[in-house]
Amino acid sequence: xxxxxxxxxxxxxxxxxxxxxxxxxxxxxxxxxxxxxxxxxxxxxxxxxxxxxxxxxxxxxxxxxxxxxxxxxxxxxxxxxxxxxxxxxxxxxxxxxxxxxxxxxxxxxxxxxxxxxxxxxxxxxxxxxxxxxxxxxxxxxxxxxxxxxxxxxxxxxxxxxxxxxxxxxxxxxxxxxxxxxxxxxxxxxxxxxxxxxxxxxxxxxxxxxxxxxxxxxxxxxxxxxxxxxxxxxxxxxxxxxxxxxxxxxxxxxxxxxxxxxxxxxxxxxxxxxxxxxxxxxxxxxxxxxxxxxxxxxxxxxxxxxxxxxxxxxxxxxxxxxxxxxxxxxxxxxxxxxxxxxxxxxxxxxxxxxxxxxxxxxxxxxxxxxxxxxxxxxxxxxxxxxxxxxxxxxxxxxxxxxxxxxxxxxxxxxxxxxxxxxxxxxxxxxxxxxxxxxxxxxxxxxxxxxxxxxxxxxxxxxxxxxxxxxxxxxxxxxxxxxxxxxxxxxxxxxxxxxxxxxxxxxxxxxxxxxxxxxxxxxxxxxxxxxxxxxxxxxxxxxxxxxxxxxxxxxxxxxxxxxxxxxxxxxxxxxxxxxxxxxxxxxxxxxxxxxxxxxxxxxxxxxxxxxxxxx
Length: 613
Fold this sequence. Notes:
Blueprint: E1 8-9, E2 12-13, H1 39-84, H2 89-139, H3 149-161, H4 164-188, H5 193-202, H6 205-240, H7 242-247, H8 251-303, H9 309-351, E3 372-381, E4 385-395, E5 400-404, H10 411-419, E6 426-431, E7 434-435, H11 441-446, E8 448-451, H12 462-466, H13 475-484, H14 488-493, H15 511-525, E9 529-533, H16 541-552, E10 559-563, H17 567-570, E11 575-580, E12 583-588, H18 590-595, H19 599-606
Parallel strand pairs: 5-10, 5-11, 8-9, 9-10
Antiparallel strand pairs: 1-2, 3-4, 3-6, 6-7, 11-12
Helix pairs in contact: 1-2, 1-4, 1-9, 2-3, 2-4, 3-6, 3-9, 4-9, 5-8, 6-8, 6-9, 8-9, 13-15
């Protein structure tokens, strides 16, 4: 599941607790693609998805163009008959009725064409959003350094929405830009080759000017989307850290920073709009001059009697319609530029290589209880910062183990390895003597329940959030899990009980209440491995005591791992592993470790495990 704010790994965040600081890079053992997908290649790859609807839209648009040709002919006949042939209303009523019907037909065809084109764009957006979300879930919380939470969220929302005009307007306009003008030329060529020649000579000027101006617009659009990602990341960062900013009286200063970034984005947008309006003015000027040339030549020929009024007026009616598709393409060409700018970050996300270990489809099945073994386990982040180095330990099936150590000892990196968020770069991590790299990710993650330090609740009810651990669970099972997590009492005191909406990120609930709901979620999953990352950190002493008793009541075939920062959490564990600089430096019970000189006793005496890792 996409996590805009992921849990920590080592000393920092996996996805980036604050988006404008970037995110962890992908592990160095994941090879990058040799050639990255360009935005244009991404857009081209999406065209088949909209192919059938786009073809239908083009056909309907072409039919509407042919109706315009017929409509102009009938209108010319009516005007010519009334002015020069002295026809009355009774003489032309049939033509007027047909003309009215053609107006309705043209409107219907145009409306249907736009609806079908919109359906094509909607299908592409749905497919692309599903594909992008699936890619992010495959990558996991560890993202590349240039793919931040703000980039992902902006791409999923504004970025994909920006592609709509490209598929619903630009692509149909690109097809009609040749079909309708050529149809008009084919109609008028037999009786007015001079006007047809002017049309053929002046028509290429519009796309030429459009391409010349579009080259600069493409670069400006890409720069504008980068500014939008920067603004989104900084704004999200400020919202997430609003409490800290208030405490340090820095909210006004950061508000000024947000305003400055917004103004910068606004100026960039105005630059793009200025170029867009300039290009539209140029295209309109070229089209107007071309129509004027046709009108002047027809006027002189009518004046000297070299042309019949009926045909001259007919050509004048068709001349604006001849240039209309070209002008529309010029207008919608900016949709292409915007789509290319928006597709850059989408292509970046889709091009991010997937760790091969995350795509294994294995038939291995691990039976509970689960023994966990690490053999010379090694993992390092880009920049040569070693998180784990030749880590060795064994946790027996059903054992209760606490993992402690100073900040940066590698505890959270080990947790992410156990959870499958990252893959060992050397050594082996074994579940019941089976290397986790040979297990399908779904199989691996089904073996473990996890309660992070900062659990996340999603929009829905409290029962919905608890059922994330087991969507098929009954109400009785949900209640039992909540009772085990010491959450049932406070839930039943709420007005709607288990049907109480949680709000965004658990709004309306305290940190301790959110923690207990997350514990209930983990208990409901009932996996053979339970990983708690200081699950009692946000609880009051009474709730902490209840959770401690609940952990002691966990079935003995469940392997319990507690990443601990507080002494009260570890004293009753079967064994304590003390980590430092990516290694296990001590192991034993609380009493035994206190009796010997070493890091554990130093932590107890100096910090009481209050440091965060």
